[in-house]
Write a structure and sequence with these properties.
Helix content: 25-40%
Number of helices: 14
Largest sheet: 10 strands, mixed
Bound molecules: glutamic acid, magnesium ion
Shape: globular
Number of strands: 16
Order of helices and strands: EEHEEEEHEHHEEEHEEHHHEEHEHEHHHH
CATH superfamily of the largest domain: Glutamine synthetase/guanido kinase, catalytic domain
Length: about 450
Amino acid sequence: MPPFEPPGQPTSPAAGDATPDLVFLATCDLVGLTRGRAVPFADHESVLRGGVGWVPADLAVTAGGHIVDDNAFGATGDLRLVADPGTATDVPADGDAPAVRLYLADQAHLDGTPWSCCPRDALRSALSDLRERAGLRLVASFEHEFVLQGLPASAPMSFARLRLAEPFGSDLVRLLDLAGLEPENWLPEYGEGQYEVTTRPTDALRAADRAVLLRELVRDLARRRGLRATFAPILTAAGTGNGVHIHLSLTDLDGTPVLHDPDRPGGLSEIGARFSAGIVTHARALTGWTAPSPTSFLRLAPHRWSAGGAYIGERNREALLRICPTTPLSRTPVADQLNLEYRAADATANPWLGLAALVRAGLHGIRHYEPARVWPETHSGPGDLAPLPGDTGEALDALESDPVAASWFDPTLLATHLAVRRQDLSDLEVLKPDEACRRMADVY
Ligand code: GLU
Ligand code: MG
C-alpha cells in the first residue's frame, strides 16, 4: 500500500469567534455514519501528530447500532484515527452550542501505516491507480437531497418552501462557505419538506470528504434550529426519494478535461465512454456499495427519476449515468462543463467507498471494455434489457458474485460490508415498508 500523501493545509481556518473546547476526529463507516472521538482542544497539536485510539470492530457496526454477529475482527486489535489536517472544519459557537473543530481521519495501524480496511484509504488507492494506470485524475461533486421534518406543507420547488426553511437555509449556506465546502445551489425540491444542496466540483478525495462533512453539518444545524434533517433514501414507500447524485469528470495529469469529443455520441469522448462502460457493466454490483440499505431500492426503481436502468443517457434523469447539459451562457468551454452524473447512490452509502467503487469500475472499463452505447435524448433507453437489481438483497448478491467487483477492495472489508448490510436487511425485513422507512429516517 502507498504511504499517506503529505497532509494538506487546513482549508478552514479557525472561523468562529470562540476557540473550540473540543476537537472531534471522525471517520465514516460501512453504513455511512460518521463516528469518532473527541479530545480537549488543548491536546490538539499532539492529537494531530499521534491520532486517537480506534477499534477494528467499529467497522462492523450495523445501522441498527450493534456489532454484526460474524464480525471478522473479533474483540482484538487496535488502530489509530489519524487526522488529515487539510480537512479541518470549524463549526462556530451558536447559541448554547459551543464551537467544535472536526477533522476527517484515516484509520491506520499503531505504527501509522494504512489499514487495508480503511474506507478513506480505499478511495486514495483507487485514485492513485487511476493516475498511474490511466494517467487520469477524477474531479467530482456530490449533490444531496434531504427532508427537513417539522415544517408546514408547501408547494414543490416554491419560493414559499425556500422561505419556510429560514433561517436554516441561509445559515447553512453561510456555514458551508465558512467550512470551505464551496456551496453552489440551495434549493427547495419536489418531495414534501425536501431540499437539495450542492457543492462545487473538486478533486475526488476532497469531494467525498465534503459529502461526509456536509451530512453532519446539515443534521447538526437542523437540530440547533429545532428541525430534523433526514437523508434516508425514502420516507414512505410511495414517497419521493432522497438521492445523492455523484458528478464525475476526468482530466489528464495536467488538468485538461478529457470527457468531451463533439464528434462522438452525446459529445462523450472515447475514454469517457469506456469509463462509463465499466460503470454500466458492473452497475448491479456497484449498487451494492452505493444503494446498500434496506430501503434504498424503494427509491431506486423506474419512473422515480432516480435511476431506472443500467445505461448511459444523454440528459436523461432515468439513466444510471446521465450526460449532464452544457450551456454557452456559462462562457466556459464545453469540455470544462461536461460531466457524468451517477444517480444510483443515496446517503446510506459511504462516500469514500461509493466513489472508490465507481473509480475501480471506470478504470476497469478504460482498460478492458469497448465504449458504452450512449442512449440519445430522443430515446428513453434500453427498457427492461438493462435492469438494476430489484432490491437490496439482489444488489448485495450481485456485488458478492461479480468477480471483478469483488476484487476492488480488501476481502475483509467486502465481507464485513456484506455481513453488516445483510444484518440490517434481516433486522428490518419483518417490518412493513413504511415502518422500515421510518426506522431508516431515524438513523439517517
Ligand atoms: N429525487 C430524485 C432521486 O431520488 C432526484 C430528482 C432530481 O433529478 O433531482 O434521485
Ligand atoms: Mg434533485
